[in-house]
Design goal:
Residues 7-223 form the Peptidase C14 caspase domain. There is one protein chain. The protein is α/β, with parallel strands linked by helices. Helix content is 30%, strand content 19%. A six-stranded mixed beta sheet has the order 2-1-3-7-8-12, with helices on both faces. A four-stranded antiparallel beta sheet has the order 14-17-15-16. Strands 4-5-6 form a three-stranded antiparallel beta sheet. The radius of gyration is 26 Å and the shape is elongated. It starts with 5 loop residues before the first strand and ends with a helix.
């Protein structure tokens, strides 16, 4: 796979024969900037300076040429390709979706201008060496893509159903605004524990947000996937070093590992809170890290594992609890959740 992944971002506000839009060009530019560099400063998708096709430049001729070249470049590198469109679009009588170029005239039924979705799919099929294609359509009637089959490892995020408009609000397309929040690390639900953001997770976030707000806009996802491609890495919510300690040793001599197996039960003990916790002497919270005992450091790990839902707590009677302090003080038990068991297996198999 190429180090730099190929992208094209199309945004059109002012059309020659159609009503003006407000947010499309700014949305395309914001998407390009959000995807250009990921967490840690690593280059990601094509730089915005060379990946944008905006306004009057987005004629049918240029749109078709740039799109075909995009997919040919992706096929040459056996890489990932991303195509973003924000502008006017129409559902055609034959069920196709026309992504309108700046020179399109909807009143001239004999000569429409733009990129048909079916043609985009044909370009993808002809570029057989592409690893994956992600298509993001923030336009009205985008759901008309449901009528056209897509190849394997092509994912389409559509802002609306085929009979709906894509809403603009406060200078931003509402759908694109939700996607940008995920790609910029501002939406916890769009990234996995390692900070990976995918088209599937972005769709889940957008679907939840638009349904929660009861907007007159229902996003759609169309895909046939053998693999899920991470579009971008943002600040991870997971501390990898702390996660690896799931497979570590109990600090007490002769005790073995904290969790001997994914299904084992760890018996908590008061000294995880403080050396004399059993006698009522607790941690003040002002202790420096270097002054903590190994058992207290284990307590800090358990706090973190609890917060990212890797463990579940039970009191001394075997009842579920959410209070780690009292579980330790009264010698309750701690077990791995399903997610915790998954990561414990990765750690102990040396895959993390």
């Amino acid at each position: 796979m190429a180090d730099l992944r190929e992208a094209l971002y199309v945004g059109i506000n002012e059309y020659e024969h159609r009503p003006s839009l407000r947010a499309c060009e700014a949305d395309a530019r914001a998407m390009a900037e959000a995807l250009e560099v990921e967490f840690g400063g690593k280059s990601n998708w094509t730089p915005a300076s060379s990946a944008l096709l905006l306004g009057a430049r987005a004629t049918e001729r240029e749109l078709l040429l740039r799109t075909e070249n995009l997919l040919q470049a992706g096929a040459y590198d056996h890489g990932d390709v991303l195509f973003y469109f924000s502008g006017h679009a129409d559902r055609l009588d034959d069920g196709d979706l026309l992504l309108a170029s700046v020179d399109d005239d909807p009143n001239d039924s004999d000569s429409r201008h733009g990129l048909r979705f079916s043609r985009l799919v044909r370009y993808i099929r002809e570029a057989s060496g592409v690893n994956s294609v992600t298509i993001i359509l923030d336009c009205c009637h985008a759901g008309a893509i449901k009528n056209i089959d897509v190849p394997v490892n092509v994912t389409v995020l559509a802002a609306s159903r085929d009979n709906q408009q894509a809403i603009e609000n406060d200078g931003r397309g509402r759908f694109t605004g939700i996607l940008l929040a995920g790609l910029n690390g501002e939406s916890v639900g769009s990234a996995d524990l390692f900070g990976g953001v995918t088209a599937v997770s972005l769709y889940a976030d957008a679907n939840a947000m638009l349904n929660y707000r009861r907007d007159r806009q229902q996003p759609m996802l169309k895909a046939c996937l053998e693999k899920i491609v991470v579009l971008k890495h943002v600040q991870p919510s997971l501390d990898i070093q702390c996660l690896r300690r799931l497979g570590g040793d109990d600090p007490r001599p002769g005790r073995g590992r904290i969790f001997d197996s994914a299904a084992s039960v760890f018996e908590a003990y008061p000294e995880m809170e403080a050396p004399n916790a059993a006698h009522g002497e607790y941690r003040t919270g002002d202790e420096r890290e270097r002054d903590l005992t190994d058992s207290q450091r284990l307590m800090n790990d358990f706090k973190y594992w609890r917060n990212v839902h890797l463990i579940e707590l039970y009191d001394e009677y075997g009842e579920p609890s959410d209070d780690l302090f009292f579980v330790c003080l009264h010698r309750g038990t701690i077990r791995l959740t399903a997610r915790g068991r998954y990561y414990w297996n990765l750690v102990t198999q040396g895959r993390l």
